């Protein structure tokens, strides 16, 4: 799916229970009926003539059942523009549905004020104690550990697809992300790593993470998978990889980048 951001089109993104409603695999261009909240989610710096709206409802049977879809099923099909909006809609929807009360005084939070929305400020302000609540993302790291022409890939205990992927984990309170990378690799597979390189980031709306992608060089230790998290973990040669995550994920970008680097250096050696 790609969206025409040059045309003055309205795109509606209905969100419910972590799913998007996409008839014919695209956001609706007419406002869906039965919404209890519908507001703009454009960012001020978004360079687009199109307008993007989130649509939300409290009704259990809201819109035609067959058009609700999980973004995980679309990762292969979306271009980066459509992925941005789908991801943003899901995260704003999660914030709306899971942050309904002030965590300080317990009062019910009102809808975002339209004059603030018009300025691109998406916020719910407690009417009693005036605390402001913004949609937030939780930072996480994802790291591909490499050793020459080999990379470390792990299958998670919770994997339903048998995929082998890079290691990932949440940034703890007070931690720098570099510390998180070192700690997560040590915890999950018992290895020490060095020479961290930041690659790229990806908003990951399952439900509200920001993934920060790194490469790290193997330094010392032997693989000991953490049994609660990791089913198995091995070194894989870049020409002989197992089943890896789909295109559209940052894990895949890290793996593809590593393979490309190895191929280029093999070409150099062959010359
Ligand atoms: Zn309050």
From TrEMBL:
<dbReference type="InterPro" id="IPR000086">
    <property type="entry name" value="NUDIX_hydrolase_dom"/>
</dbReference>
<dbReference type="GO" id="GO:0016787">
    <property type="term" value="F:hydrolase activity"/>
</dbReference>
<keyword id="KW-0378">Hydrolase</keyword>
<feature type="domain" description="Nudix hydrolase">
    <location>
        <begin position="135"/>
        <end position="259"/>
    </location>
</feature>
<protein>
    <recommendedName>
        <fullName>NAD(+) diphosphatase</fullName>
        <ecNumber>3.6.1.22</ecNumber>
    </recommendedName>
</protein>
<keyword id="KW-0479">Metal-binding</keyword>
<dbReference type="InterPro" id="IPR049734">
    <property type="entry name" value="NudC-like_C"/>
</dbReference>
<dbReference type="Pfam" id="PF00293">
    <property type="entry name" value="NUDIX"/>
</dbReference>
<keyword id="KW-0460">Magnesium</keyword>
<dbReference type="InterPro" id="IPR020084">
    <property type="entry name" value="NUDIX_hydrolase_CS"/>
</dbReference>
<dbReference type="InterPro" id="IPR015797">
    <property type="entry name" value="NUDIX_hydrolase-like_dom_sf"/>
</dbReference>
<keyword id="KW-0520">NAD</keyword>
């Amino acid at each position: 799916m790609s969206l025409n951001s040059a045309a003055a089109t309205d795109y509606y993104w209905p969100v419910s229970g972590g799913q998007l409603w996409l008839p014919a695999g695209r956001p609706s261009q007419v406002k869906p009926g039965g919404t209890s909240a519908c507001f703009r989610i454009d960012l001020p710096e978004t360079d687009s003539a199109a307008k993007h709206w989130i649509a939300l409802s409290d009704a259990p049977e809201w819109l035609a059942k067959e058009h609700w879809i999980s973004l995980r099923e679309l990762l292969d099909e979306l271009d980066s523009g459509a992925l941005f909006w789908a991801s943003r809609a899901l995260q704003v929807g999660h914030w709306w549905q899971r942050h309904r009360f002030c965590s300080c005084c317990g009062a019910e939070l009102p809808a975002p004020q339209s004059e603030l929305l018009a300025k691109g400020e998406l916020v719910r302000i407690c009417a009693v104690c005036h605390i402001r609540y913004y949609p937030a993302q939780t930072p996480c790291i994802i790291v591909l550990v490499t050793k020459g022409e080999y990379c470390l890939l792990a299958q998670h205990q919770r994997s339903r697809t048998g995929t082998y992927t890079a290691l990932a984990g949440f940034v703890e309170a007070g931690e720098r992300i570099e510390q998180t990378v070192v700690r997560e690799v040590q915890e999950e597979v018992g290895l020490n790593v060095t020479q961290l390189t930041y690659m790229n980031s990806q908003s990951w709306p399952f439900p509200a993470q920001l993934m920060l992608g790194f490469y790290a060089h193997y330094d010392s230790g032997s693989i000991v998978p953490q049994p609660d998290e990791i089913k198995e973990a091995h070194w894989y040669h870049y020409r002989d990889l197992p089943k890896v995550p789909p295109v559209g994920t940052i894990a895949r970008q890290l793996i593809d980048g590593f393979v490309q680097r190895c191929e280029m250096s093999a070409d150099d050696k062959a010359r």
